[in-house]
Write a structure and sequence with these properties.
4-stranded antiparallel sheet; 11 strands; about 120 residues; 7-stranded mixed sheet; about 0% helix; mainly beta; globular
Length: about 120
């Protein structure tokens, strides 16, 4: 089982930056892909970015491409989401997630961290 704890959220002005961290504990062999998702009030949870635990293959939602960067530090068991040029529409609760199998959904989730971007 994998345990995830997010941190780094907060209030920032439009155009600013934040870096989210996701501390990971548990079985290394159970981490196929790590992802960041977000959910704004009244909206469905949506995919933001993902990275393979072995290797550096990344993917991004179109809405964040060129502004957000996902990375990881295997030695620190941490995944990061660097968010630049933030917009008010980026306001949401951001969740870290783990996909333990090659086929199937993300099956482990953190508690979330609030990001609020003021205009």
């Amino acid at each position: 089982q994998v345990h995830l704890v997010e941190s780094g959220g907060g209030l920032v002005q439009a155009g600013g930056s934040l870096r989210l961290s996701c501390a990971i504990s548990g079985r290394t062999e159970s981490r196929f892909r790590m992802g960041w998702f977000r959910q704004a009030p009244g909206k469905e949870r949506e995919f933001v970015a993902a990275i393979r635990w072995s290797g550096d293959i990344t993917s991004y939602a179109d809405s964040v491409k060129g502004r957000f960067t996902i990375s990881k530090d295997n030695a620190k068991n941490t995944v990061y989401l660097q968010m630049n040029s933030l917009k008010p529409e980026d306001t949401a609760v951001y969740y870290c997630a783990v996909k333990t199998l090659i086929v199937g959904p993300y099956d482990g989730w953190g508690q979330g961290t609030q990001v609020t971007v003021s205009s």
